[in-house]
Design a protein that fits this description.
The protein has nine helices and no strands. One of its GO terms (molecular function) is endonuclease activity. One of its GO terms (biological process) is maturation of LSU-rRNA.
Length: about 190
């Protein structure tokens, strides 16, 4: 029985549920000071856990770091676009990479499979291959991705009820607005 118990144990970088919850709440609270403290804790986890760090935790931290930098007023618009852009491109690439098969599958199809709004993939495409989008669209993409991460990863990990159910109509409207911006060439 003891051998079976040892086999079921998983070593993680955080001390326990309380620390996990504290970091999750800190990341999503909106207070840049508390967010920075949560980011520092995630950095400590990363130093302990290295490449085993869950991609969702790493991506969340990168996106929150962008929001903290944005609220600090230290970066110019162009620098913020690049910062958000890198975090968004990395998120889409890492999240869809695990779904890639031996045959290349379009990112839009992979996004549908994980219930990620298609316009986020289109935003990633423009960031990678097109002209840089406006800062407002990068911010909106960051918010949508953070909400997606909260619902699909953070809230499910330890049974937390942090995410609030939003109405499908609101999400659909946001997606339509973002697609319109992408299609109308709303790029700087």
């Amino acid at each position: 029985a003891r051998k079976r118990l040892k086999a079921l144990r998983t070593v993680v970088a955080w001390r326990g549920r309380a620390e996990w919850d504290q970091v999750m709440v800190g990341l999503y609270c909106g207070d840049s000071r508390l967010q920075q403290e949560a980011l520092d804790r995630v950095s400590a986890w990363k130093s302990r856990y290295g490449p085993k760090m869950p991609l969702a935790v790493d991506c969340t931290a990168e996106l929150i770091r962008c929001k903290v930098l944005d609220s600090s007023g230290r970066l110019k618009s162009h620098e913020l676009i690049l910062s958000y852009g890198l975090a968004l491109v990395r998120f889409v690439n890492l999240i869809t990479e695990r779904k890639q098969k031996m045959v290349s599958v379009p990112l839009r199809q992979l996004a549908r499979e994980v219930d990620l709004p298609i316009w986020v993939v289109d935003l990633r495409h423009e960031l990678t291959h097109g002209k840089l989008p406006r800062l407002a669209l990068c911010r909106k993409g960051c918010d949508v991705v953070l909400d997606w991460l909260r619902k699909t990863y953070w809230s499910r990990q330890l049974g937390n009820n942090l995410c609030e159910e939003s109405e499908d109509e609101d999400e659909e409207q946001e997606g339509m607005e973002a697609n319109a911006e992408l299609n109308n060439g709303g790029w700087e």
